[in-house]
Amino acid sequence: MWRGERERLGARTGPPAQQPGHGIDPGTKKNWVPASKQAVTVSYFYDVTRNSYRIISVDGAKVIINSTITPNMTFTKTSQKFGQWADSRANTVFGLGFSTEQQLTKFAEKFQEVKEAARLARDKSQDKTETSSDHSQESGCETPPSAQASSVNGTDDEKASHAGPADTFLQSENNKLKMALTQSAANVKKWETELQTLRESNARLSSALQESAASAEQWKRQLALCRDENDRLRNKIDQLDEQCGEINREKEKNSQLKRRIEELELELQEKETELKDLRKQSEIIPQLMSQCDYVSEKLEAAERDNQNLEDKVRSLKSDMEESKYRQRRLKEGLKNSLEVLDGKIDGLQDLRRGLSRLGSDS
């Protein structure tokens, strides 16, 4: 059973051209191989037994993405809504299309986090391997001195002095090994329990997949039946649509004929009304003729009066012009008289001032 954090991004696999796609075709190295025609769930999983991270995507009962993430992988954004990465183990380039740019950014950030976790897991595994190899090398290096100490010539005290530290060191190493073995046995039991759990989970998943496959087959049959029924209903609907179209056309023709009849009836009524008016007018035509003659006589008399008035107006205009000319002449004479009078008044005033000065002098 896979364990880890799952990201439901609603992404669909596809190239930047918005066509469904999953991986680069290994034959052409250019074309995208279609994988899904609808949005699928893309998940990150952690495999405890292999200490590795994977990207998994399942469409129904079909696994469309199963890629192991390594520290050397790179997720590349080729557009605002599309990204891809290369899996050298599967010899495939995987691509994912997203509905929004935020989903693509979120997936890329999670990819970087999982890649860093994979690197840490690899480093941790290497450290464990180096530690175990160091322990084995130390054990191999310490064994010869103990053997050498047992074969060196000398007294018992000297032998005891040489053998004591080596035995203590070996005893401590044995204790460490016993603890490691105990821990390993406990880990083995735990791993066996987890393996059994994984097997049971895989069995349940297999049965679920089988049930899903059976359900899918049943759904396919039902879908085929529904399609046949749908086609039959569509044909019937098309026939009914044609019949309804003919009925509607006939109704339209009838409505057009009714409107035309109504228009003709209205025109007939208008013509009859006009005819009645003309008959009434024909009855009063003699009266109108006599009135016309009378009006004509009045018009001629009015024209004669108008001519006389025009003659009078012309004579009055000539009289007005002559009167205006006379007024201008009078105004000019009056102006000259006023100028002469002003001069005489000025002379009289000068004479009065002179007489006043003479009076004052005398």
From TrEMBL:
Residues 1-118 form the WH1 domain. SUPFAM superfamilies: PH domain-like. Residues 1-29, 118-166, 303-329 are annotated as: Disordered. Residues 145-154 have a biased composition (Polar residues). The keyword Transcription does not apply. It is found in: Cytoplasm; Postsynaptic density. Keywords: Coiled coil, Cytoplasm, Synapse. Residues 1-10, 118-137 have a biased composition (Basic and acidic residues). It comes from the Eukaryota. Pfam families: WH1. Its main location: cytoplasm. Belongs to the Homer family. This is Homer protein homolog 2 isoform X1. The gene is HOMER2.
